[in-house]
Structure prediction request, 90 residues.
Amino acid sequence: MVLEKLNLGGYKSLKTSPRGLGGLTSLKEIDVEECEVLEERPSRVCTLVALEELNFVGCKSLMKITGGLGGLTSLNEIHMKKYEALETFP
Prediction:
């Protein structure tokens, strides 16, 4: 079995992403919608070449999307709305 979708949406107290995300090489979608205290984009996301969709809607505390998105060669959708703290975007 291969994990293709990681849905952490609605976890109101999630500040950081789970460790080991970079090892999920078949992951196609990450959903962290309404994770209101998430401060940084999940680390190692740029190594997920199969990733097609990122959903950050409602992550009000997200301050940084660092490390670039250039390695995400399959990415075709990024959902971003309701930002109050975003300081940097690649």
In short: The first strand starts at residue 5 and ends at 7. Strands lie at 5-7, 29-31, 53-55, 77-79.
